[in-house]
């Protein structure tokens, strides 16, 4: 069964930055793009590099290893290196400003 898990304060994550957390043993990356928050698997579908620290621009994150760009909303990759999408997770910010992710 899935449920929302508290993570950390939305104010801790600057625009165009990301932070990895573990929820139920899953390695999940929380991203801020333009004030919108996204939760994706923290593992590239090309060669399984961690995406943490990847550059975020306009709702896309670039893998730090070979640069494949993934859409943060859909998980879909761009380009030829992989056509496997990332898993994405429902995310919201609570009334008290805490980011919550459904896993
Ligand atoms: S491992 Fe991410 S692009 Fe190659």
TrEMBL record:
InterPro entries in alphabetical order: Rieske_2Fe-2S (IPR017941), Rieske_2Fe-2S_sf (IPR036922)
Family membership noted in the UniProt record: Belongs to the bacterial ring-hydroxylating dioxygenase ferredoxin component family.
Cofactor: [2Fe-2S] cluster
Pfam assignment, any one: Rieske
SUPFAM superfamilies: ISP domain (SSF50022)
Source organism superkingdom: Bacteria
PANTHER family: FERREDOXIN-RELATED, RIESKE DOMAIN-CONTAINING PROTEIN
Residue ranges constituting the Rieske domain according to the UniProt record: 5-100
Coiled coil regions, renumbered to chain: none
Record flagged with keyword ATP-binding: no
Protein name: MocE family 2Fe-2S type ferredoxin
Alphabetized Gene3D superfamilies for the sequence: Rieske [2Fe-2S] iron-sulphur domain (2.102.10.10)
Keyword annotations: 2Fe-2S, Iron, Iron-sulfur, Metal-binding
């Amino acid at each position: 069964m899935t449920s929302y898990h508290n993570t950390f304060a939305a104010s801790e994550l600057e625009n165009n930055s990301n932070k990895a957390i573990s929820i139920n043993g899953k390695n999940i990356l929380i991203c801020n793009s333009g004030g919108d928050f996204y939760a994706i698997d923290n593992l590239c579908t090309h060669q399984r590099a961690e995406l943490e620290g990847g550059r975020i621009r306009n709702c896309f994150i670039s893998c730090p290893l070979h640069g494949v760009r993934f859409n943060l909303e859909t998980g879909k990759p761009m380009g030829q290196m992989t056509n496997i999408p990332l898993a994405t997770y429902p995310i919201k910010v609570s009334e008290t400003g805490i980011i919550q992710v459904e896993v």
